[in-house]
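Hi support team,

I submitted a single chain yesterday and got back a structure, but I'm not sure I'm reading the token output correctly. Could someone confirm the output below corresponds to the sequence I sent? I've pasted both exactly as they appear in my results page.

Thanks,
R.
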Amino acid sequence: MTLAEAIFLTVITASTPLLLAAIGELVVERAGVLNLGVEGMMIMGAATGVAVAIVTGSSLAGVLAAIAAGMAMAAIFAVLTLGLAANQVASGLSLTIFGLGLSGVVGAPFVGIQREGIGKIPVPFLSEIPVVGPILFRQDPFVYLALALVVGVSWFLWRTRAGLVLRACGENPVSAHALGYPVLRIRLYAVLFGGACAGIAGSYLSLVLTPFWTSGMTAGRGWIALAIVVFASWLPWRALIGAYLFGGLIILQLHAQSAGVRVPSQFLAALPYLITIVALTAIMALRRSGGSVAPQGLGRPFVPDR
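Hi R., thanks for writing in. Yes, this is the structure output for that exact sequence:
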């Protein structure tokens, strides 16, 4: 394997959890809900996934448990913000803090216990293509799932009636409710979907990226996923680009440090966030009139007439 192939493979590995979490949050925000608890849902998915995988000896059981954990955390958020109309920003931050603490309790008995990671699944014939084959068609199931979610979510949001209704709930929930659509129920489904995606992203960290548990292993990836959604202007294909851009920056700063580049390590670690600010500024400056913007009802609680 050449150095270039190795770098591309590590970029894909670093980008996959970001893409999984970002695509779930994108659907949530398209429905008009701002969930800042992605970090908490991810780390609960990581802790629960590795714990169940070690106890049962099944990685599949670990992934399913991670999905359930992410959805359970999302359900708590939904009860607060949709059921009780609590402030979404405060509820999301509280969810992150709660998840960070609870994950430490869940994962404490499994600290340092390694298990065999989930292997790669080569695509017949395509994986034998020189250079491109090993990079694109010899990956673990999470990579294929992340790419499939980008295609599926894009098709759902822009090519189906249900996607149009979901976007309407994010743009103008009052009008959607007046037309007879169950706004709160639709938002609940979106929040649960986002929790499931965050749980899968967390399980990727503890079952594939580093197949063991350590406290705080998400290392801010949930916040990066939130930034990717904004960077993508709430469009799935741009989220794919943003996730791989962030993953590339993470890998770039690691390679730069190992190569002895004479730049402070703190600056290299902050580079992905700096690039985000620059990219967001450029996008807003160059965005054409009528382009994609944040849903009008994002972050605003909705209480239907009774």
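A quick pointer for reading it: Residues 3-111+141-286 form a domain with the ABC transporter involved in vitamin B12 uptake, BtuC fold (CATH 1.10.3470). Let us know if anything else looks off.

Best,
Support desk
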